[in-house]
Amino acid sequence: MNRTRGEAVAAVLLLLLVACGGSSSNPQGPSPTPTPTPATSADPLRADAEASGRAIGAAVQSSYLGQADYAATFARHFDYVTAEYEMKWDPTERQPGVFDFAGADAIASFAAAHGMRIKGHALLWHQALPAWVTALGPAELRAAIRSHIQAVVGRYRGQIVAWDVVNEAVADDGSGLRDTVFLQKLGEEYLDLAFQTAHEADPAALLIYNDYGGEGLGAKSDAIDALVSRLRGRGVPVGGVGLQMHVAAQSRPSSADIAANMRRLAALGVLVNVSEMDVRIRNVAGDLAARLAVQRSEYHDIVAVCVAEPACHAVTFWGFTDRYSWIDAFFGPDDPLLFDESYAPKPAFFGVQDALRRR
Ligand code: G3I
User: Is the CB of 128 under 6 A from ligand 1?
Assistant: First the structure.
């Protein structure tokens, strides 16, 4: 697929993604009345995002959606949802052919009830993978990948507008593909298999390659660009690239490098999105107010890059309240997100709001 036709396709996909904003009828009946919090009185972020032509999202877990303040804050400010865990292979197909969509369905119906689009995450990843999959031989693995993707994508056909089809398949040093069970048993064409199977299961969905450590410019970013170019060169329907953006304040890729990387990917004919953003501040010097001020500008500057780049169609945060973040367990206690533990919008929230308002 050459670049100009690719760009035309990308434009159509972008139109589709923006158009299906959806209406907010509430088939679930009256939701629990949340206590009025600063979050439910701040201007809705999703209105500014829509005005900027971007989707604004967050990763959630279905068990939290039953909490009134969590649900109210999420519904007010976001129009794009990603399942943080419950659409991965492990929770959806723990045993061959035995599917559990309870968590995924709960997230999908919450999204439908609040006029949100859904991005599925993640069909093929070397983590959150059941042991029975890693024990398969090449032919069985190929069949299992096909039946898993057909079942999961098929179930949400027409509901889910985009899928992270393959996650984190490039080696961190950019030397090539990550050494996973998929690569060992099927070679690089496991990516072709995954994208083609997802496309067959839902031809309208935007299919995304998602990764971290390739947000700016550098060896890993070069390897991701080369991979996407090879795949598209083989006619594999990769329509988007997700830049995870799990960053530490003051030691992240520069905004200029992120912009240059987005433009380089756009030239391949793909859409770009910021897919899992959070900003760690525990190592920033100064008191909490000083650290939160630094965090505000980091969120502002990165979201502003996306708003300025036509091919960047969405920004998703990996959670939205410091009450629930994977960062605390993985990197140590921190305050990486837009709302504090009591759902009060932090300076970071206003940094994002300003960026969406091009201020
Ligand atoms: O749901 C079960 C619960 O029933 C059980 O009681 C509990 C204790 O074992 O585990 C719960 O499952 C955990 C799940 O998160 C939900 O909280 C899994 O053990 C745990 O492994 C899973 O961690 C997720 C991790 O991916 C692995 O799937 C994190 O929440 C999630 O933030 C993290 O997200 C990844 C992205 O998918 C890809 N990029 C990096 C990012 C951070 O690692």
Answer: yes
Q: How confident is the model at residue 41 (pLDDT cuts 50, 70, 90)?
A: confident
**What are the phi and psi torsion angles at 79 (to 5°)?**
-125, 15
Going from the Cα of 310 to the center of ligand 1, the distance in angstroms, rounded, reads: 32
Q: Is 188 a catalytic residue?
A: no
Q: State pLDDT tens for residues 72-81.
A: 999 999 999 9
CB 35 within 8 A of CB 342: no
Contact present, 282 and 296 (Cβ < 8 Å): no
> With a 6 A CB cut-off, is 244 part of the ligand 1 pocket?
yes
| Catalytic hit among 86, 168, 215, 298 | 168
Start-end of H helices in the chain: 3-19, 38-41, 45-52, 68-77, 89-92, 102-113, 131-134, 138-155, 181-186, 189-201, 219-233, 255-266, 288-308, 326-331, 347-356
CA–CA gap between residue 119 and residue 219 (Å, rounded): 28
Tell me which residue has its CA closest to atom 26 in ligand 1. 85
Beta bridge partners of 280: 248
CA dist., res. 141 & res. 121, Å (int):
20
Q: Is 276 a catalytic residue?
A: yes
CA proximity to 200, closest of 166, 231, 237: 237
* H or E segment and range at residue 160: strand 160-167
- DSSP assignment of 302-350, as one string? HHHHHHH-TTEEEEEES-SBTTS-HHHHHH-S---SSB-TT-PBPHHHH
CA distance 3 to 8: 9
- Structure tokens, 9: 């396709």
* Atom number, ligand 1, closest to the C-alpha of residue 330: 43
Say how far residue 78 (Cα) sits from the centre of its chain: 13
pTM over 0.70: yes
Indicate which residue's Cα is closest to atom 16 of ligand 1. Answer: 85
Please tell me the distance between residue 247's alpha carbon and the centre of ligand 1 in angstroms. Answer: 19
10 Å CB burial of residue 256 (0-12, 13-18, 19+) is exposed
